[in-house]
Specification:
There is one protein chain. The chain is mostly beta strands and 564 residues long. 7% of the residues lie in helices and 36% in strands. The strands form six sheets. The protein has a six-stranded mixed β-sheet with strand order 10-9-12-17-14-15, with no helix packed on it. A hairpin with a 2-residue loop joins strand 1 and strand 2 (47-54). The longest helix is centred in the N-terminal third of the chain and has 11 residues, at 176-186. It is globular and about 65 Å long. Residues 1-28 form the signal peptide. Its main location: secreted.
Length: 564
């Protein structure tokens, strides 16, 4: 313990863009940022390696905007990888050109080239984030987006004294792209991460982490807003603070009915804002995060920590540790998600579609393809409605906008080709997962209301899957364990104040029903936010048609859109 104590006494406080009182102009402004994609040597866990960064920072810079602002981010790529950036959770109305997923809305920015993402932040406020959207580069290329309310509009909860970004991530000691390539070559899941991180730092439970611990100083009696982002590639995470409860007030940049909890659960791609009161005996308290996994699949089970430290308390005081739920605590996961409800006030209504124009039912499955060069003679893959998505060679949005034929088909099935007992005994028999030579998309009429039920299946194994829909928020109207029953389950939907978000977990061996109004024309990606499963084909896209009005069609592409 002595070595840990001496280490902790040497801990220095780290400034990572903590937002105290930042003044913003009253009118809508143009916010300009320069993102240089560059390789930098970074050391963690006694391992130094070159990583891809934005502006040499890991995590990358925070973007501060106000609701109503216009944002221009010029991205110049100095790295060896072609790359694109996704502004996760921003709706990009009519403006898919700025959405960022490679080969969906744009071709990636090539080495030595630039592209300026230009977008308006309309009708949204809260915590969002940005990340690379190609290969596994988002392991190090990510950062926060703080959208402040319009000038003079208060939060619908007590004004905090300070706001702090808390980005949860993963760290590999070796080159992440090589790890992923090796897995693909072998046909197996790649090696799991070597540590989780909080603001890029794993904390004092790991070797060589003296300098790599995030610490946050608090003053007794003050209230802090933690803006928590799960930027991990493959892990749903618990997060808690020793001795302190948290009040959840927002998820995915949508205000919620406040509720208090000792632990939050946050899936990759999700954000959660919590209020924390510095109302305990002044001391040092660990913030901790570790993975939730309720099936016997190997996962990085190590705990990352940071320190909440009361002002004036010496670094020699050992921090206390929070009680996190057991790693496989499904009951906690289900109960926690049930507590999240939209605020649903006149100012922040929950406009849930009550009538549904289009019913979709997508099964989520894992499978195997023959692969003579792979370890077991097979390669793992993933599918929706038995279709494993094939990536195109040019952006789907370009193909749609310019009517380029042969790039994609719009015959993605509304329901699985063969119904079966989705969550019954494990199914290892191949259902003949379809690849095809081009992606199959789902075409949606403009302004129609869509209900999509995502059903986990026991193809190889059940597992929890966080799904992210680009270009939209949606309402999570129902969720359950087992097979969705179209005769009985809709009667139990919450159509009053369901949570509204952009990324939702489909529970292990269960289903989730979401609703949204397709009022944003374009090509919008929908995929599992576990990078592993996305790479295996657990993704699709919606082609939302143009509407009849002059401001209901896709905007023309920008002149500097990267060439394919």
């Amino acid at each position: 313990m002595a070595s840990r104590r001496s280490f902790l006494s040497g801990l220095t406080f780290l400034s990572i863009g903590i937002l105290g009182f930042v003044s913003f102009p009253a009118e809508a402004a143009i916010k300009k940022y320069q993102f240089d994609i560059q390789v930098k040597n970074v050391s963690r866990l006694c391992h130094a390696k070159p990583i891809v960064t934005v502006n040499g920072r890991f995590p990358g810079p925070t973007i501060y905007v106000r609701e109503g602002d216009r944002v221009m981010v010029n991205v110049t790529n100095y790295a060896k990888y072609n790359l694109s950036i996704h502004w996760h959770g921003l709706k990009q109305y009519r403006n898919g050109w700025a959405d960022g997923p490679a080969y969906i809305t744009q071709c990636p920015i090539q080495t030595g080239k630039s592209y300026t993402y230009k977008f308006n932040v309309t009708g949204q406020r809260g915590t969002l984030w940005w990340h690379a959207h190609i290969l596994w580069l988002r392991a190090t290329v990510y950062g926060a987006i703080f959208v402040m309310p319009k000038q003079g509009t208060p939060y619908p909860f007590p004004q905090p004294n300070m706001e702090v970004p808390v980005l949860l991530g993963e760290w590999w000691n070796t080159d992440v792209e090589e790890v992923e390539k090796q897995g693909t070559k072998m046909g197996l899941p790649p090696n799991m991460s070597d540590a989780h991180t909080i603001n890029g730092k794993p904390g004092p439970l790991f070797p060589c982490s003296e300098k790599h611990t995030f610490a946050m100083e608090v003053e007794s009696g003050k209230t802090y807003l933690l803006r928590i982002i799960n930027a991990a590639l493959n892990d749903e995470l618990f997060f808690g603070i020793a001795g302190h409860s948290m009040t959840v007030v927002e998820v995915d940049a949508v205000y919620t009915k406040p509720f208090t909890t000792q632990t939050i659960l946050i899936a990759p791609g999700q954000t959660t804002n919590v209020l924390v009161q510095a109302n305990q005996v002044p001391g040092r308290y660990f913030m901790a995060t570790r993975a939730f996994m309720d099936v016997p699949i190997p996962v990085d089970n190590k705990t990352a920590t940071a320190i909440l430290q009361y002002k004036g308390i010496p670094n020699t005081v050992l921090p206390t540790f929070p009680q996190l739920p057991a790693p496989n605590d499904s009951e906690f996961a289900l109960a926690y998600n049930r507590k999240i409800r939209s605020l649903n006030t006149p100012q922040f209504p929950a406009n849930v579609p009550l009538k549904v124009d289009r019913n979709l039912f997508f099964t989520v499955g894992l499978g195997k393809d023959p692969c003579p060069t792979c370890v077991n003679g097979t390669r793992l893959l993933a599918s929706l409605n038995n279709i494993s998505f094939v990536m195109p060679q040019i952006g789907l949005l370009q193909a749609h906008y310019f009517n380029i034929s042969g790039v994609f088909k719009t015959n993605f099935p509304d329901k699985p080709p063969t119904p079966f007992n989705y969550t019954g005994a494990p199914l290892t028999a191949s259902l003949g997962t379809v690849h095809g030579t081009s992606p199959r998309l789902s075409k949606i009429a403009f302004n129609s209301t869509v209900e999509l039920v995502l059903q986990d299946t026991n193809l190889l194994t059940v597992e929890s899957h966080p799904f992210h829909l680009h270009g939209y928020n949606f309402f999570v109207v129902g969720t359950g364990i087992g097979n969705f029953d179209p005769a009985k389950d809709p009667a139990k939907y919450n159509l009053v104040d369901p949570m509204e978000r952009n990324t939702v977990g489909v529970p292990t061996g269960g289903w989730t029903a979401i609703r949204f109004r397709a009022d944003n024309p374009g090509v919008w990606f929908m995929h599992c936010h576990l990078e592993l499963h996305t790479g295996w084909g657990l993704k699709t896209a919606f082609v939302v048609e143009d509407g009849p009005g002059p401001d209901q069609s896709i905007l023309p592409p920008p002149k500097d859109l990267p060439p394919c």
